[in-house]
């Protein structure tokens, strides 16, 4: 499969370009970015070609991977789907329900495969744990803490304008939801949403299974306090998400495997654009409650 990359930032450089260029079943054709010099530098490092015209790249590939801010990703994903390119997308899919729905509809109309790179879902130990817990009945409640130190350390993502504007809710919220939803089921209601220190937010969710979950999300945690924890409690007892040794390149390689499988079989992956849209809907509801000062509903 011939694939192109849209984006030249730190995530494109650290994860996407190495994963695409190193994949045995992908022909990494080229890179397009909003900064032509950065696109050329990244393409040169990985034996690909830099494109000044995004449509020219779309015309020469079977698929695209997008590593751009969500407000830029969504319209480009629609454009790529309309060019009949399969889609390897990043989270969050979009920052509005309307833009997320447009991506889903474009992919469906063009009959192209979509995979959203929820990192944890493509880490081997995490995926195995989710599969195991999803088969267990009787979960009562869950606790997810996704605490990053992006803005309290020398993280390369600290300069990201969209992260500074949207904070942890939109950056690490998708990670937590991607783990909880396949185990506890869809969210029936955002029962409560409250702000904590700086960009930290706390959510209480009611799931269709009858279980509830609490989420604590932050990008401003002290570095010593950063980390991710998911704990489930129910009839089977207590279980905690295991640590994963899979780095982002390995996880993204597995996401590319999923894209290839979907393109061959036509079967949707659980982490497709439809899941990306559902996550966007949940986050948008929580954001609206926070903006309106509504703690419960």
Automatic annotation (TrEMBL):
Keyword NADP found: no
Molecular-function GO term, any one: nucleotide binding
Ranges where the Gfo/Idh/MocA-like oxidoreductase N-terminal domain occurs: 1-116
The GFO/IDH/MocA-like oxidoreductase domain, residue ranges: 151-237
Alphabetical keyword list: Oxidoreductase
Highest taxon of source: Bacteria
Claim: Oxidoreductase is one of the keywords in the record: yes
InterPro entries: Gfo/Idh/MocA-like_OxRdtase_N, Gfo/Idh/MocA_oxidrdct_glycsds, GFO_IDH_MocA-like_dom, NAD(P)-bd_dom_sf
PANTHER family (alphabetical): BCDNA.GH03377
Protein name (database record): Gfo/Idh/MocA family oxidoreductase
Organism field: Streptomyces himalayensis subsp. himalayensis
């Amino acid at each position: 499969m011939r694939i192109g990359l849209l984006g030249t930032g730190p995530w494109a450089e650290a994860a996407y370009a190495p994963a695409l260029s190193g994949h045995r079943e992908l022909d990494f054709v080229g890179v397009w970015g909003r900064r032509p010099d950065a696109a050329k530098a990244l393409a040169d490092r990985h034996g690909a070609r830099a494109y000044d015209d995004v449509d020219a790249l779309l015309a020469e590939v079977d698929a695209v991977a997008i590593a751009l801010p969500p407000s830029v990703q969504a319209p480009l994903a629609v454009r790529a789907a309309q060019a009949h390119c399969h889609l390897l997308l990043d989270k969050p899919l979009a920052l509005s329900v309307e833009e997320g729905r447009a991506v889903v509809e474009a992919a469906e109309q063009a009959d192209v495969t979509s995979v959203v790179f929820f990192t944890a879902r493509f880490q081997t130990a995490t995926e195995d744990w989710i599969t195991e817990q999803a088969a267990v009945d009787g979960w009562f409640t869950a606790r997810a803490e996704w605490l990053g130190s992006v803005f309290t350390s020398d993280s390369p993502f600290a300069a990201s304008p969209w992260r500074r504007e949207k904070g942890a809710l939109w950056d690490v919220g998708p990670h937590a939801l991607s783990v909880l939803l396949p185990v506890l089921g869809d969210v029936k209601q955002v029962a409560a949403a409250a702000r904590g220190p700086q960009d930290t937010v706390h959510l209480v969710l009611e799931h269709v299974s009858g279980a509830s979950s609490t989420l604590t999300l932050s990008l401003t945690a002290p570095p010593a306090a950063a980390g991710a924890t998911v704990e489930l409690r129910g009839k089977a007892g207590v279980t905690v998400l295991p640590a994963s040794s899979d780095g982002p390149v390995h996880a993204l390689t597995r996401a590319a495997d999923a894209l290839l499988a979907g393109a061959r079989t036509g079967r949707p992956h659980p982490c497709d654009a439809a899941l990306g849209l559902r996550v966007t809907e949940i986050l948008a509801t929580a954001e609206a409650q926070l903006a309106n000062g509504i703690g419960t509903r």
